[in-house]
Amino acid sequence: MNSENQAVEERTWSKPKLIDSAFLRWTITFLVIIYIIFAVRSFEINVDRIIRGLDRAWEMLYAFLQPDFLARQSHIFQGVLESITMTVVATSLGILFAIPVTLGAAKNISPLPVYYFCRGILVVFRSLHVVILAILFVIMFGFGPFAGVLTMIINSIGFIGKLLSEDIENISDETLEAIRATGASWPQLIIYGVWPQVSSRFIGLSIYRADMTFRQSTVIGLVGAGGIGAVLDTAMGRYDFNTAAAILIVIIILVLIGEYVSSAIRRRLT
Amino acid sequence: MPWKNTDNKSEWVFRSREESLKRFLLFLAGLTVFLIASKFISDATMWPFVLDAPTQAMDFVTRMFPPDLAYTNRILPALWDTINLAVFGTVLAAVISVPIAVMAAQNTTPHRIVRGIALTIIVTSRSVNSLIWALIIVQVVGPGLFAGMLAIAVRGVGMISKLFYETIEEIDQEPIEAIKATGASKAQVFLYGYIPQLMPSFVGVSVYRWEINIRESTIIGIVGGGGIGFLLNSAINRLRWDQAIMVLITILITVFIAEWVSAKAREAVA
Amino acid sequence: MLEIIDLVKKYDSGPLALDGVNLKIEAGDIIALIGPSGAGKSTLVRCINRLVEPTSGKIMLNGVDISSLNKKELREARKNIGMIFQEYALVERLSVMENVLSGRLASVSFWQSLRRNFPQKYISEALSLLDRVGLGDYVDTRADQLSGGQRQRVGIARALLQKPDLLLLDEPTASLDPKTARQIMRLVVDLVQEKNISAIINIHEVKLAELFTKRIVGLREGRIVYDEEAAKLDTDALTLIYGEEDWESERPAEDESE
C-alpha cells in the first residue's frame, strides 16, 4: 500500500439524510408520534361491540356465499333499470349542458366576465360531493330518480367542464389567431379552431363520464335519490343479507361491464 | 373520399350520402333511447314534489341564515375525527395494497392463481362505493369512526393496488438484472432494484388517494361512519339548516386545503 | 479459467440462439465478441452468469460448472463475475454511491443493505474507484442526473467493486457518442489490465474491437466462426462473420450494416 491509498482508507460515507438538519428531523418525528397518539384515541374502538359484531360478520359471509337473487327479484330488476335509465339521462343532459359552460370557462376563447362566471360555476359544482348534492336535491324535489338525475347532471358538468376547458386553454394561440385572421365569427372559431382539436378528448371524456355516472347511480340511492342503492339499503336494513349479497354482486358485475365497455370504446377511438 | 359526381364534374362534399344517413340513424337511435329513459324517470317521479321545489329551496335557504356560528364547537372535534379517518384509512389501505399489488403484477406474482385472487380483491374493492362498504361494515363493528375508517381503507385498497401493480408491471428490468448479476439475494434485489423505482409512484398514488379519502370521509358519517358527515345528517334531520350550512362551509374549506396539500406533495415526489 | 463447452440456448419461440459454442479464456485475457445483430452475442454473455438459462452445455469457471449450480451457489458464483450493460442499468433514483455499493450486496446482510451500512472496506474501495473513473465529485448525486458517459462509469465502478475474476460487457459503448465510447473502452481496458481481470466484451463496432482488444471472436447464427488475434482480422474474416460486403470501401465508418 502506498501512502496515497492509506489516505483513501480513512474516507467514510453514509447515506445523506432526507432532511439535513438533525433538529428539524427529530422535531418532525416527534410531531408525527404525538399526532399518532392523539389521533388513535379518537377512534374509540369498542372491542366488546366488535366481538358481538363478529357473529354477524360470519352470518354475512355465510349469506354472501349463497346470494339470493330471486326473493326480491322484481325490486332488484327495477333498481338496476332505474340506475341505467338515470345514467342515460344524466349523462346525455350533463354533456349537453357542459358544452356552454366549458366554452365559457376557457380563457382563450371567452371574455373575462363570462370566464369568471363559468369558472365560478365549475368550482361550486366540483366541490360539492355527489352524496351531499343528492341529499339537498332529495329534500327539494322529493325521493326518487329525479333528484338523482339532477345530482349527476351537476356533477357531470363540473367534471367535463374542468377537464375539457383546460384542454381548450392548451390549444396554441397561433392556431386560434390564424382562424381569427380569416375574419371568422365566434361560432366559426369554435367549429374550425376548437372542436377539431378537442373532439376526440371530448368523446373520450363523455364515455368515461357515463361510466362514472353509473357508479354514482349505484350509491346515491342510499340517501333516497333512486337507483339500485335504495334497494340495497332496504335489504341491509332488514338484515336480509342474502339479497344484499345478490345486489352487491349485480353492482360489481355491472360496474365491471361498464368499465370494460368504456375503456374498449375509448381505446378504439384513440 | 367523399366526392360527388355530377355531370362529369367532381365536387367535394363534407360527407358522403351514406355516411350522413348512417349518422342520422345513429342519432335517431340515441334520441329514442334517451326519450324512453326519460319517460321511465318521469314515471318514477312525484311531480307535485318537484314543482314544489322552489318553495322547499326557499325554505331551507332562508333557514340557513344567519348561520349558527356557535355550532363550530361541535364541528371542530368532528373535523379532527374526519381528518384522522382519512389519514388512517389511507395508511391502512396503502399498507395492505403493497402485498396485493405485488401479487397482482404479472412480473412479480408468485402464481397465476394468486394473481387471480389479487385481481378479484382489487375489482371487488373498486366497484363498490365507500358508502356501501360503510353500510356493510357498520353492521359488523357498530357505527362510529372505526367503521368509517375501515370502509375508507377497504375502498382505497382497490385503487391504490391497481395503480401500483400497473407501475410494477412497467418497471425497468435492466437495473434489476444488473443487481441480480452481482449475486444479490432476492430480498436485496427487491430493496435496491424494485423499491427505488416504485417509491415515487407509491407515495404519489397514496397522497392522491388521501385527497379523495378526505372527501369521502366528510360524507361517510351519513351512513354511520362517524366524522363530520354525521353532524350534517343530524342537522338536516332536525331542520337546523343554520347548522347544516356551517358544516357545508367547513367541508368545502377542508376539501380545498386537502387538494392544495395533495398537489404540493405530489409535485415534491415526482 | 473460463471454458465454455457445447453451449446451446433455445428460446421458447424461434430457432437456436446458441448452437454449440466452445470457447476458452485464460486469466487476464480480454476478448471482443463481434457478429451481426441476432448472432447470439448478448445471449452468450448472459448465459455465462445465467441471466439467461442455457439449454444445455457446460460453463466451467475456475473448475466449477456454473450451469449446474443451485440458486445459492449461483449467487456465490455471480459475486465473482462483474457485468456492464449497454443502457448502464443503474437504478436511477439511487445515488451514484448507492449504485456502486450495490456491487457488494452479495457480501453484506439484508439489514446492512437496508440501512446502507456497508463495511468501511467496501466504502473506501468504492470511493477510490469513483475517483479512478473520474466521478469523485458525484458521490451523492442521483444517477438520473448524470450523462450517458458518466452513467457508464458508475456501471464500471459497480462491476469492479465486486473484485471480479471475470468481467462481462454487453455492448458497453453502443449508447454513447464515438468520443465517449473510446474513452470508456480505454478506461475499461486499463482497469481490467491493472487488476488482472479477464473480460469478454460483446461489441458492435469492429473498429473499437480492433483498437482495444488482442483477441477477437466472431459469432454468426449462434456459432463461433472466427477466433484469432485482433491484428489478423481482415476483410475475409469480416465476410466470414458478417457476410458479403465491400469491406474496403465501407470500413470503418459503416461496419454494422445487417
From TrEMBL, chain A:
Entry keywords, A to Z: Cell membrane, Membrane, Transmembrane, Transmembrane helix, Transport
Family statement: Belongs to the binding-protein-dependent transport system permease family.
Gene Ontology CC: plasma membrane
Membrane-traversing stretches: 23-43, 80-103, 123-154, 243-261
Encoding gene per record: phnE
Top-level taxon: Bacteria
Residue ranges of every copy of the ABC transmembrane type-1 domain listed in the record: 80-262
Membrane topology of this protein: Multi-pass membrane protein
Entry protein name: Phosphonate ABC transporter, permease protein PhnE
Organism: Halanaerobium polyolivorans
Compartments, as annotated in UniProt: Cell membrane
Gene3D superfamilies: MetI-like (1.10.3720.10)
Xref: InterPro entries: MetI-like, MetI-like_sf, PhnE/PtxC
Any one Pfam family match given in the protein's UniProt record, by short name: BPD_transp_1
Gene Ontology molecular function: any one: ABC-type phosphonate transporter activity
UniProtKB/TrEMBL annotation, chain B:
InterPro entries, per the entry: MetI-like (IPR000515), MetI-like_sf (IPR035906), PhnE/PtxC (IPR005769)
UniProt topology in membrane: Multi-pass membrane protein
Domain ABC transmembrane type-1 intervals: 79-262
CDD domains, per the entry: TM_PBP2
SUPFAM superfamilies according to UniProt: MetI-like
GO cellular component terms, semicolon-separated: plasma membrane
Domain of life according to the entry: Bacteria
Compartment annotation: Cell membrane
One protein family per Pfam: BPD_transp_1
Transmembrane portions of the chain: 24-41, 83-105, 189-208, 214-232, 244-263
One Gene Ontology term of the molecular function aspect: ABC-type phosphonate transporter activity
Keywords: Cell membrane, Membrane, Transmembrane, Transmembrane helix, Transport
Family designation: Belongs to the binding-protein-dependent transport system permease family.
Protein name: Phosphonate ABC transporter, permease protein PhnE
Species assigned in the record: Halanaerobium polyolivorans
Gene for this chain: phnE
UniProtKB/TrEMBL annotation, chain C:
SMART domains: AAA
A Pfam family of this chain: ABC_tran
One MF term in the entry's GO annotations: ATP binding
Keyword Nuclease recorded: no
Domain ABC transporter residue range list: 2-246
Recorded superkingdom: Bacteria
A GO CC term attached to the entry: membrane
Keywords: ATP-binding, Cell membrane, Membrane, Nucleotide-binding, Phosphonate transport, Translocase, Transport
UniProt-listed PANTHER family: AMINO ACID IMPORT ATP-BINDING PROTEIN, PHOSPHONATES IMPORT ATP-BINDING PROTEIN PHNC
The protein's name: Phosphonate ABC transporter ATP-binding protein
Organism whose genome encodes this protein: Halanaerobium polyolivorans
Taxonomic placement: Bacteria, Bacillati, Bacillota, Clostridia, Halanaerobiales
